[in-house]
Design goal:
471 residues; alpha+beta; four-stranded antiparallel β-sheet; three-stranded antiparallel β-sheet; 9 helices
């Protein structure tokens, strides 16, 4: 009878093991579309055997559950996600900047970009129209209609300068706002990682590596964090993750240690700090937003200020060569893109085409020729080259920067996809495989159940017969 009881016990452990395996396969199938989930695998281990008068008797089997997760691939996914997110953030800001110009920019994947003359709403067209109006006035210096056109085009030009500068300022403000919002999101994720660390440590205190669902959640939070800032992650012996970033010198700065956020993030004047330490961000959406706003967009705004200064100085010099007080065309103090404006004393009635007798067009001609003059910063000018060429180069630079980041986004997305697919081949759930395993577990469960029923019947019959004999 002891042999039957031993078989019954071993069969009971087999039923329990197969039931757990069925649960694992079912859970895998249920999470097939969960991006943070890694496949769980049921592994069988024998409980050994004992010696009995009837010979060795099996003690049954048990099941342990592990995740099919690669720490190396997880780290690679985090790094690639950070790079992709940084390039994508730059792309978004530069697209906004290009739209803010109101120009048709012909982008080339080979070498350069150029301003298309098709646009009628950009600064390029306003500059052309302004100098063309003076050219027309030089041809008809006594025509009041032409004088009115000059003043109107001057107003359009100054409005266009101011509008473009305002648009670009808004792009920079949006980039800073998005970076601030991402910093808030990063702090929330740091808190989430710390809380999950606490839950994992508590659950795994007596069973290391058992908090599989919590570990999946933590990995998902870490990867979202990596898309915001570059991080490194190291797991401690108690199962908690230490999350770190780096300062400008490459020194490690701990953000999460155990169950606590040691250095929450903050942002001020375009600098992101962890606690009191300024971080040296090299990737992530925060870095992309800040670098685009303070880099290419600010460079474009600076170029427009230089252009506005050159236009004001050169046109005033041609229109008012003797520097007569109150005789300027543009307000002398408005030498930036945001402040350029027509002198308040200038109207169509006060506009002059020449300094001599009626019909003199010397002033109008001199102003019109400013458009073709080549300037040099080495000679004290604000720009190099002609006004049109300088503006074209400034716009081409932003177009080329966008071209470059478009390529970076495409290439980096392909790299990230490759790494994610590699991890998916390790950690991902195959429905076909799980269905096959599920059927295998179910058959094993049914077979164990039948054995259990047979042994149970034998024991029942044995007890009944023994009772009859003793009676």
């Amino acid at each position: 009878m002891s042999g039957l009881f031993s078989i019954l016990g071993a069969t009971a452990t087999a039923l329990d093991a197969q039931s757990q395996a069925i649960s694992v396969a079912s859970n895998n199938i249920a999470n097939v579309n969960n991006p943070d989930y890694s496949e769980e695998v049921a592994s069988y281990q024998t409980l050994g055997s004992i010696e009995t008068p009837q010979g060795p008797q099996s003690m049954g089997i048990t099941v342990s559950v592990q995740q099919e997760r690669s720490a190396v691939l997880d780290q690679m996914v985090q790094q690639e996600a950070s790079l992709t997110s940084g390039f994508t953030a730059q792309q978004n800001i530069l697209q906004q900047a290009q739209s803010a110009l109101g120009e048709n920019i012909t982008n080339s994947s080979t070498s350069s970009s150029s301003v298309s003359s098709v646009s009628t709403s950009g600064l390029s067209a306003a500059l052309d129209d302004f100098f063309n109006a003076f050219q027309a006035l030089a041809a008809n210096p006594t025509d009041s209609g032409q004088a009115q056109t000059v003043v109107q085009q001057a107003g359009v030009l100054t409005d266009r300068f101011q509008q473009v500068d305002q648009n670009l300022s808004q792009v920079q403000a949006a980039a800073e706002s998005e970076a601030g919002s991402d910093v808030d999101s990063a702090n929330q994720l740091l808190q989430q990682v710390a809380q999950l660390n606490m839950q994992i440590a508590a659950q795994e205190s007596g069973d290391p590596g058992s908090a599989l669902a919590l570990r999946d959640q933590r990995e998902g939070a870490v990867e979202k964090l990596a898309a915001l800032i570059p991080i490194s992650v190291k797991e401690a012996s108690n199962g908690t993750d230490q999350v770190s970033s780096t300062d400008a010198s490459g020194n490690s700065v701990t953000l999460v240690s155990g169950v606590a956020v040691t250095n929450p993030l903050s942002i001020s004047a375009g600098v992101v700090s962890a606690g009191s330490t300024a971080l040296g961000l090299s990737s992530g959406s925060i870095q992309g937003e800040l670098s685009a706003g303070a880099g290419a967009v600010q460079t474009l705004r600076t170029s427009l200020d230089q252009l506005a200064s050159q236009v004001v100085t050169s046109v005033n010099g041609a229109y008012n060569p003797s520097a007569t007080v109150g005789g300027n065309f543009f307000l002398a103090s408005g030498t930036t893109a945001g402040t350029i404006s027509v002198d308040p004393n200038l109207t169509a009635a006060t506009l002059v085409a020449g300094s001599g007798s009626a019909g003199d067009n010397s002033i109008a001609t001199a102003v019109a020729q400013v458009a073709d003059k080549s300037f040099s910063t080495a000679g004290g000018d604000s720009i190099d080259g002609t006004i049109g060429n300088f503006y074209g180069t400034a716009v081409s630079d932003i177009g080329q920067a966008l071209d470059t980041v478009n390529t970076q986004v495409t290439d980096q997305t392909a790299v990230q996809t490759t790494i994610v697919n590699q991890r998916q081949s390790v950690s991902g759930v195959s429905v076909d495989q799980e269905m096959s395993d599920l059927m295998s577990y179910q058959r094993a469960f049914q077979a164990s159940s039948e054995v259990f029923q047979v042994v149970n019947t034998l024991l029942d019959n044995l007890v009944t017969n023994l009772g009859a004999i003793s009676g």
